[in-house]
C-alpha cells in the first residue's frame, strides 16, 4: 500500500519529514500491523510524527505529500478482505493464538496470497482532490517543571497555582482519555478511545 | 532506552503482543524519532498497537510487561539533554535544516556521543510499583457501511438516522480533534492535540 501510494504521488521514500499519512485504523482490532509495512515502505514513521491513526476502524490510509494538491486514499477491497478472512491463518488468530505460534506453512501461505495479488485485486484507489493539510510547526523550546525538575517541551508546560509544571505534576485529568498518570500513584488504564 | 527497559524487566524482544509502551512524547517537538529506536529494539511497534504517546512532551517512556507488577519509567537525564543541546547538529536542526542535509561528520559525531554514553549518564530509571494496565481486548468482528459499502471493524460502526454507517459517512465531527474528514469534501486539518 505504501509503495503504491508513492507511485501514485510520484515520490520516493521520505528520508526526512516529507510524506504524511492518515491511517484509518483504530484500536482493538487486527490488521493494524499493516501500518508497520506502510512506515517501512514510505519512511513516514510514527515517531518522526509522520503517520497517525484516524480511528475509523477501516483497512485504509490517506497519503499526503507537501506541495501537491490533494491526497491519495487507498482502501483494501472488500472482495480481497472476504477472500483473506477465510484463510486458516485467521482461524488460529481468532482463537487467540499468537502469530509466532501458528504453523509456518500456514503463515507462509497467507503471505504468499498477499504478495502475489495484483494491485487491482488488492486496492481501491481514490484521489482526494480537495484534501488540505498543514503540518504542525515544531519547536525546540524547552521548559523545566518547578515541582519535579524535569524538562519538557514548552507546548506541554502548564501552570498550576502559579507554578510552571509538567502535565504529570499538574495532575489535571484529561477528559478525552481515561488514563491518568502520576509518577507516584496507582495508574489504571482502560481504553474507550474512538 | 528500549534495550535497557528489557533488561530491567528481564524480558526479551516482543515477537507477538507482549510489551506495551507509553511514550511521554507528544507532537510539534523534536526527538520523537527516539521512539522508532524503542520500537525496533523492543518489538513493541505502533502498528501492533503496542506503543502510544501520552503527549506530555517529555523525553521519557514507560515500559509495561504482562504478568509483571508495575512498570519501568526511563527518562533522558537533564544533564545529558543539556550536553546534547549544545551540539552543532542541533544548530542546524533549529534553523530548519533537515537531517539528511546536515554534514555527515557532524551527524556522526553526535551519534557517537550518544552511542558511547553510559546508561548512568543517559538515563534516570524509576520503578513504578503501582502501575496497572489492562490492554484493550481485540475483536475480528466486522460490519459494512450501508452508505459507502466499505467494511469497518465493528467497534467503529455508528448509527445515523437508523442506518448502520461508518464514521466518515456519519459525518459526526469529533470535538477532541480539529480534523473532520469526508471522502468527498474539502478537508482542513490543524492540530491542537495535547
Ends distance of chain A: 24 Å
Q: H/E series of chain A, N to C?
A: HEHEEEHHHHEEEEEH
Output the strand order for the largest sheet of chain A.
Answer: 2-1-3-4-5
> Globular, elongated, flat, extended or rod-shaped: what is the shape of chain A?
globular
Q: Count the strands of chain A?
A: 9
| Structural class by sheet pairing and helices of chain A | alpha+beta
Major sheet of chain A, described briefly? 5 strands, mixed
**Beta fraction of chain A:** 15-25%
The helix content of chain A is 25-40%
State Rg of chain A: 21 Å
Low-confidence stretches of chain A: 184-194
Mean pLDDT over all positions of chain A:
87
Quaternary assembly = homodimer
Query: Largest interface here, residues on each chain?
Result: A-B, 79 and 81 residues
Number of alpha- plus pi-helical segments of chain A:
7
In short:
Chain A has 194 residues and is α+β, with helices and mostly antiparallel strands.
What order do the helices and strands come in, and which of them pair?
The structure is a homodimer of 194-residue chains.
Chain A: H1 2-9, E1 20-23, H2 34-42, E2 51-53, E3 60-64, E4 71-76, H3 78-85, H4 88-94, H5 104-116, H6 119-122, E5 123-128, E6 142-144, E7 151-153, E8 158-160, E9 163-165, H7 167-170
Parallel strand pairs in A: 1-2
Antiparallel strand pairs in A: 1-3, 3-4, 4-5, 6-7, 8-9
Describe this structure in words.
Two copies of one chain form a homodimer. By secondary structure, the first copy, chain A, is an alpha+beta fold. The first copy, chain A, is 27% helix and 19% strand. Chain A has seven helices and nine strands. Chain A has a five-stranded mixed β-sheet with strand order 2-1-3-4-5. In chain A, strands 6-7 form a two-stranded antiparallel sheet. In chain A, α1 packs across α2. The relative contact order of chain A is 0.13. At the A-B interface, α2, α4 and β7 of A face α2, α4 and β7 of B.
